[in-house]
What we know:
The complex is a heterodimer of chains A (231) and B (234).
Chain A: H1 4-8, H2 12-20, H3 33-51, E1 54-64, E2 67-68, E3 72-78, E4 84-88, H4 100-104, H5 107-128, H6 132-141, E5 143-146, E6 152-157, E7 165-171, E8 176-186, E9 189-199, E10 205-214, E11 219-230
Antiparallel strand pairs in A: 1-2, 1-3, 1-11, 3-4, 5-6, 6-7, 7-8, 8-9, 9-10, 10-11
Helix pairs in contact in A: 2-5, 3-6
Chain B: H1 4-7, H2 11-23, H3 36-54, E1 57-67, E2 70-71, E3 75-81, E4 87-91, H4 104-107, H5 110-131, H6 135-144, E5 146-149, E6 155-160, E7 168-174, E8 179-189, E9 192-202, E10 208-217, E11 222-233
Helix pairs in contact in B: 2-5, 3-6
Amino acid sequence: MQQFTSRLQLPGWAVVVAAAAVVAPLAAQNPSAGQMAEQYAQNAQANAKLMHQYTWQMRVSLTYKGNAETPELYQMNWAPDGTLQKTLISAPPEEKKERGVRKHVEESDIASLKAYLDSLVDLTKRYATPSPGTMMNFYSAAVTTPAPNGGVAATESGFLQSGDKVTFTLDPSTHQATSFTFSTTLEGDAVSGTVIYGSVPGGPNYASQTSVSVPNKQIALVLENFNFVKQ
Amino acid sequence: MREFAARQPDFKRATCAVAALAVLASAPAAAQNPNAGQMAEQYAQSAKANAELTRQYTWQMRVSLTYKGDAEDPELYQMNWDANGKLQKTLISAPPDPKKRHGIRKHIADKDIDAFKKWLSDLMDLCKQYMAPTPGQMMDFYSKATITPGPNGNAVAFENGFIQPGDKATYYIDPTTHKPVKYAFMTALQGDTVNATVVYGVVPGGPQYAAQTSVSVPAKEVTMVIENFNYVKQ
């Protein structure tokens, strides 16, 4: 029996979220929100094309009620038809090991927790890959303030749903986002997430680390992408 | 005692939705358009201009509510703008007979009225989101909408996931004016399917407005029709 994370079979798009989240191009000159959103869409498309030239590795770490599953390492490749493939390359988990999620969740509850985690990943996807229209609203309404290390923080409430809050921290020299945080709710539970962006020299921007936590459920999920290699 | 719609304070929030219906601007649609951002900006400007035009008018609004097959007496309101620019509604139809127990009060016990009012308020808030989409939501619509020929020579622009996952929105657009003549959406409120249709009207030389908005929640056996008419320039 595989570990819980494997049995969950994190959907392929969850991987794409972590890998291909696109940096938001907030320009200092502040052209119109519609133009900025169009630029964001173009950048996202260009970044996605760049991403298809690379393979990389992804590590998924899940902690439930204080117990950490053994992290799983995947090799990420693009199939000929352009779909992203993930292959487990870390040692398969021991079948009889009652730890992590399996230590706290009865077999009968696995399905409901799996459904919850699916919803959590789906929610994270929506925040990590906002539509151009969502970014247009963001560009129109965001409040910018100084951030540490000379950066600029752009914050908006009601980004995707009422009561949520997001902040992009931007490098003023490149106008690229260096991190993105969001706080929202899932089925009444507070959810917080942080995305740290990386950049492959001459290559794409990517979400190097995505951390999501649901304190009420004592769930913490970390996805890391690294070892990008051009094909 | 006035009828349910008039009695509940939360129903005043419906007025906001109605105002949104009234000032919704025209939405020029295009499929897979790389200039969706500019189109959305145009939408925002049109909405603002339409709202300014609407402020030059007074009109009347009729609200008809049906619950479990029983219809409340329709209520007629005079809609005016106050000195602060806020929309005011004044009941001008005969007040309902307080002893008459029909419509909602026939089916809902007094102790459950508050919960129903809250639900109805949530329904109004949901409809308001669909009736007054943000420029960003329209940008996504312009980018993703599928356009097909429709009845009466209209173009039909359709999108899934307009406001929330699983919903559907359809604009019926007059190809000569590029303005919507009708708008339909299907969404969900607390798991219940919500269907709505908006038929637009235009005041000659004046604003575009939601002439008739019909909302139904089959699982709750609730239907609501809001009509705006008799626009008079001040």
